[in-house]
Amino acid sequence: MTEPDLLQRHRAVLPNWVSLYYDEPIEIVRAEGRRVTDGSGRTYLDFFAGILTNAIGYDVTEISDAVRTQLDTGVLHTSTLYLIRKQVELAERIAELSGIPDAKVFFTNSGTEANETALMLATQYRRSNQILALRNSYHGRAFGTVGITGNRGWSASALSPVKVSYVHGGYRYRSPFAGLDEAAYVEACTEDLRDVLRTTTSGDVAALIAEPIQGVGGFATPPDGLFGRFKEVLDESGILLISDEVQTGWGRTGEHFWGMDAHGVTPDLLTFAKGLGNGLAIGGVVARGEIMDCLGANSISTFGGNPVSTAGAAATLDYLLDHDLQGNAAKQGATLMAGLREIQSRCAVVGDVRGKGLMIGVELVRPGSQAPGEPDPAAAARVLEETKARGLLIGKGGLHGNVLRIAPPMTLTDEESAEALAILDDSLAAASA
Ligand code: PMP
């Protein structure tokens, strides 16, 4: 609970398109591990921060120490006009981890900026402003990225600086190809891609951008191999593949380090942000050197890759690799997935449970409605209130706002998984009653 006054002041001075969760929005004032405390002293298990910000949890000593050591030098930032050792070191590591040959890295402060940069690079490199994106996608909140975002609810402006065509693929549950098995679905989407290329573009397209699992779109998870088939089609015309790993990167999907790895393909460009900073502002784009160096003039990001953010990011990377958090994401994800599927078997409001690792979506539908079920955003809002009342924070999303999003920090323990499952079980029952 927040003092009502703060909520009123927020509403008065911040734009009305900045949405808040909950009937009574909370202010988080303290946090540790996977738990956060609000202004009234209530503590919650945080099952959403993992994806938004705190990939490995709150108050991690190794990360605080790395940031403090940098602060102690007195250098919060200088400028990219001088050498920044931490930035170079982190770029070297990310270039190597990306699997992209001859890779270079450019740091930004956010996922939006990372995708804006990727768009600029791809369009310049290909000398084309035609972009392919997926229906139900989300890529950011600035002019270009809003322009390519396929999820209408999060595409605040309809004016786009690029010409975008949307293809099927990400959101299988409500796709016209939903009834097909995985292999046939992949082929149907690949045929759709060919058709869109042929009929809505000049063929001279810069890039296709895709989230390996659609985040804001409700953790919509395409079958493995889909983007591998897409890449074969793109390669016929030299079209670049941009993997937006802002939510799927750093091992969160459990089985792979990057979401795109499940598709057996290395993208031409990869964008990242959110979890890498574990709460600090950092993002970036990785691309083959030839693509990264294609711009014709100077460019700068004043704060992108500053010594404080890169110190925190390097410590985050060390921590998640040293503690095999990808392995833990796979393990805890399997427990949560099995528990939620069991709940689904006896809870008519749950239409679909999907995802990978610690990105799990639960799509809610009106019980008794015709398959795949009428979307029930009101039920999702009720479940969020019910989980909050029981001390658990989760997210929601999806094209219709009817998908629960479960994305805890990757340091999650067995006990916390069990605790959250019990709360979700009770909350779903209460919200369906
Ligand atoms: N891409 C994806 C897949 C995202 O989920 C988001 C944020 N929700 C962004 C880009 C934009 O990132 P940011 O909010 O850091 O600008």
From TrEMBL:
From the UniProt annotation, give the residues forming the signal peptide: none
CDD domains found in the cross-reference section: OAT_like (cd00610)
Q: Transferase: present as a keyword of the record?
A: yes
Pfam families under this entry? Aminotran_3
E.C. no: 2.6.1.44
State whether it acts alone or in a complex, and with which partners, per the record: Homotetramer.
Supply the name of the protein: alanine--glyoxylate transaminase
Source species, please? Prauserella rugosa
